[in-house]
Amino acid sequence: MIGRLDTVVIDCPDPRALAGFYGELLGMHVVHDEDGWVTIRTDSDAPSLSFQKAPDLLPPRWPDHDRPQQFHLDVRVADVEQAEERVLAAGGKRLDGGGKTFRVYADPVGHPFCLVW
């Protein structure tokens, strides 16, 4: 092993707002907040998520190949119906696509992620 994953960084126009969305989605809390950079994590030493200000970001459009996803997260849930309700209430959006064990969503900025079970 060369190293250990420390954080996944997501570009976005408003780091605090997107950190709030993912904090609600994943049960994480803010551990660092400075101008243009917010980091959230759990109380474990698991990798964190960081949000970096990118005011001119062109978000992906699912499933547009001209503006494809740059990454996506798979979020494991016990009850997809309950999880979907909370995702939508937090500002997420259901997208076309999915399968027998996953559904596709977008965060408030447009980054796709999946709920998996």
Description:
- The chain is of the alpha/beta class and 117 residues long.
- The protein has a single domain (7-55, 71-116), classed as 2,3-Dihydroxybiphenyl 1,2-Dioxygenase, domain 1 (Roll), CATH 3.10.180.
- 19% of the residues lie in helices and 38% in strands.
- The protein is built from two helices and eight strands, in the order βαββββαβββ.
- It has helices spanning 15-26, 80-89; strands spanning 7-12, 29-34, 37-41, 48-53, 73-76, 93-99, 102-106, 112-116.
- The protein has a four-stranded mixed beta sheet, covered by helices on one side. A four-stranded mixed beta sheet has the order 5-8-7-6, with helices on one face.
- Strand 7 and strand 8 (112-116) form a beta hairpin.
- It is globular, with a radius of gyration of 14 Å.
Task: Detail the topology: elements first, then pairings.
Blueprint: E1 7-12, H1 15-26, E2 29-34, E3 37-41, E4 48-53, E5 73-76, H2 80-89, E6 93-99, E7 102-106, E8 112-116
Parallel strand pairs: 1-4, 5-8
Antiparallel strand pairs: 2-3, 3-4, 6-7, 7-8
Q: Short summary of the structure?
A:
The protein is of the alpha/beta class and 117 residues long. It has helices at 15-26, 80-89; strands at residues 7-12, 29-34, 37-41, 48-53, 73-76, 93-99, 102-106, 112-116.
